Amino acid sequence: MPIALVVHGGAWDIPDDEVAPHRAGCRRACDAGWHVLQAGGSALDAVEAAVRVMEDDPIFDAGTGSVLNVDGIVECDAAIMDGASLRSGAVAAVQRVRDPIALARRVLASQVVLLVGAGAERFADAAGHPRCAHTDLIVPREVVRWHDVRARLAHQPRQAFERPLGEVAGRGIVAGPMGTVGAVALDAAGHLAAATSTGGTGNKPAGRVGDSPIVGSGLYADDETAACSTTGWGESIVRVVLAKTATDLVGRGMAPAAAAGAAIEILARRGGGLGGCILLDRGGRVGYAFNTPRMAHAYRCGDGPVVDGI
After folding, report:
1. Please, what's the largest Cα pairwise distance for the chain?
2. I need a labelling partner for 179 at 20 to 30 A (CA). Which of 34, 141, 209, 218 fits?
3. Strand 219-221's sheet: what is its strand order?
4. Residue ranges covered by each domain of the chain
5. Helix (H) or strand (E) run with residue 76 in it
6. Catalytic residue from among 180, 201, 225, 247
7. 144, HSE (Cβ side, Cα atoms, 13 Å)
8. Residues 87-139: tens digit of each pLDDT
9. How far apart are CA 31 and CA 38, in angstroms?
10. What Å distances lie between residue 5 and 31, 170, 240, 260, CA to CA?
11. What is the structure's pLDDT at 168?
12. Dihedral sign, Cα of residue 18, residue 20, residue 21, residue 25
């Protein structure tokens, strides 16, 4: 069985001066996941390794470098799913957690599927998962963006100011990062896995949860069809259950490239949304699509080299 791995670093209007670091970060993440697969590791281990690289890279909106919520702090969501068992683990609205995907992996090994907020943080402490200070996750770039967004929204009606940035962007008021990171993998045993992690949308209300930790929306993996990770405006992605929609299209006989494109068309037409997805089927075929100006991504299949793009 050929091994394969695909990663993404967010779908949005990535600025020109951030293109190179986004591509480089995706390549590093792909390399990390590939080393796991090449050594005979599982798809689950590979997607966790790939996503952790991007969570620790301040260029991405996940872990360190995440956007700030309305209170000026970082709240993260993450999820991971095993295509063999259909088991998943997720955390949402967690604070002071440097590698939320690793915490989601701990949840996967527990008796629950999704933990949120203070409950997830209590679980992290009980499990011995490392915590950090709020400021450890904040980078100067996002502080500047946060102040800029709040200044622009101050001229909008109060109800617009209180909406998540993604929703405001969808209405054409203001644009900003809709970055999420993710990975899908196929291991030598023929098993698929998916992982997704995000800091969400800038200036979001405290406690807002998007698509990323929701199985079927932000990710899905099934050994019988495909694995998918999504990125973009979370509220619209949830409406069309984007990841499950994409993998179901593969299950109906579509090639991953065609299925990814069809899923993003559904996102735009039925969900009114912007975003992207990466897709990998049980034969190791890759697909990806996006309707934003750019989506950072990288992949590697079989004996081929790493391919990256944006």
Report:
1. 57
2. 34
3. 219-221, 226-232, 275-281, 286-290
4. 4-309
5. strand 76-82
6. 180
7. 3
8. 999 999 999 999 999 999 999 999 999 999 999 999 999 999 999 999 999 99
9. 10
10. 9, 31, 25, 16
11. 42
12. positive
DSSP annotation of 215: B
The pLDDT tens digits of the residues spanning 16-34 come to 999 999 999 999 999 999 9
CB within 8 Å of 198: residues ≥ 6 apart = 61, 62, 66, 76, 77, 78, 179, 180, 181, 210, 212, 218, 231, 234
Q: How is residue 130 annotated by DSSP?
A: -
Known catalytic residue at 180: yes
Q: Which amino acid is at 23?
A: R
Tokens of residue 221, six digits: 């993996």
148-176 confidence digits (pLDDT tens)? 988 888 877 655 444 444 444 444 333 45
What is the spatial distance between Cα 45 and Cα 26, in angstroms, rounded to a whole number?
17
As a whole number of angstroms, the distance between CA 250 and CA 42 comes to: 22
Give CA–CA dist 214/238, Å, rounded.
8
What are the distances in angstroms from CA 66 to CA 77, 212, 293? 11, 14, 20
Rounded Cα distance between 226 and 224, Å, is 7
Q: Phi then psi for 268, rounded to 5 degrees?
A: -70, -45
SS3 56: coil
Nearest to 47 by CA among 194, 170, 172: 194
Please give the CATH architecture assigned to the domain spanning 4-309.
4-Layer Sandwich (3.60)
Helices (H), 116-164: 117-127, 140-153, 158-161
- Supply 35's token pair: 């080393």
pTM above 0.85, yes or no: yes
* Cα angle, residue 159 at apex, residues 156 and 160 outer, rounded to 5°: 45
